[in-house]
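Support request, please re-run this one:
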Amino acid sequence: MFGFSMKNAKESKKESSEEVTAERKDEILRSISLKKDKINQSSEEEQARIYEEIGLAFNELGEEDNAIDSLEKSIEIKKSLGDGYKTLLKLYNKKRSEAAKANDDELLQIYLKKMDRMMQISKDVTRGVR
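Re-run finished. Output below.
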């Protein structure tokens, strides 16, 4: 009634998504491989979508650096505010937090700048700027 159980449902969903089975991992890796093969034969808009899908797949595998690389390529090709944008922003925030905990000011500044760029992309997309 008050949504108290919602938190538990969200937590259990998060925990289950963190544990990728070997079968699911193989499926994701095959999908990534197939998508990478399609990139060069695709239009720019399709390339952006494919890079986003690859980035989201890498994120599901827990391969954050590969996910960031692919999602950045997607956003460079086509600015959008979809799942890739949201995931990339979360990954940047996580990396920023890790840099702050490690007292790595240089890395902290890199991720703060990347997050600022994401905010600018959000403004540009909202305004219709390409």
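The CA atoms of residues 123 and 129 lie 8 Å apart. DSSP finds six helices and no strands in the chain.
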